[in-house]
Amino acid sequence: METRLTEAHLTPAALVSHTMIRIQGEQDGDLAVYHACSPNARLRLQWGGILMTMLNAQACQGVLEGFSAARSAMTLIPRQIPAAPPAAADPFALPTVAIDWTRRPAYAVVPRQELSRDRKRQLKWLDLHMGPVTFQILDQAGCVGAVEILQAAHHTATRVFLDGPEHAQDPTENDYTPPPST
User: Fold this and answer.
1) Which domain of life is it from (predicted)?
2) 108 closest CA partner among 142, 147, 65, 143
């Protein structure tokens, strides 16, 4: 049997250019920190089917800023919609999206609506576009839960990353001023 060397290619065999993630209902997350207070620090956030790795406090603050902007538009969406049936009994069989945030993402919040398939009601949600990821925020409970998880991640990031003191201001506070675009 012959083994093929695939390491020689500089271009990956495949690239995901965009994905959509739905956020609804109560949110639960788990934080882990690796190599704190060093140039190699990493903050891992496991959140449902999402695995986020923050590589600096700037990125963490930017993701929180995007969700905070969505929070200001959430009066347009339902408070809480019924939870979808569980995808699988085995938690290892759930679809997972892994995102490595290397810097502050640009974002846009877009209120969306359309008729349901049966054409009897209007469906409303928010699209939060962040580069190659669009978060579809389906209800207020999901948005609030996401902000809470990301606030905990941001609070941790300001203490474990070398750029933490520069990005310590909380985007959910009323006196928050976004940094200038670079």
Assistant:
1) Bacteria
2) 65
Q: How many CA atoms lie within 13 A of 46 on its CB side?
A: 8
- Asked, for residue 3, whether it belongs to a domain, the answer is no
- pLDDT of 16: 79
Instruction: Specify the number of domains making up the chain.
Output: 1
Question: What's the CA gap between 69 and 130, in Å, rounded?
Answer: 12
Structure tokens, 86? 């569980």
Q: Which residues are registered as beta bridge partners of 52?
A: 45, 99
Q: Report yes or no: 45 and 51 within 8 Å, Cβ to Cβ.
A: yes
Q: Domain range holding 39? A: 19-83+93-166
Residue 35 lies inside a defined structural domain of this protein: yes
Low-confidence ranges of the chain (pLDDT < 70): 1-9, 84-95, 182
pLDDT the model gives residue 7: 60
Q: Are 134 and 128 in contact (CB under 8 A)?
A: yes
Give the DSSP letter string of 151-174: HHHHHHHHHHSTTGGGG-S-TTST
DSSP secondary structure letters along 50-88:
EEEEE-SHHHHHHHHHHHHHHHTTGGGS-S--PPPPPS-
Is position 6 within any domain? Answer: no
Predicted pLDDT of residue 179: 83
In-domain check, residue 9: no
What pTM value is reported for the model? 0.87
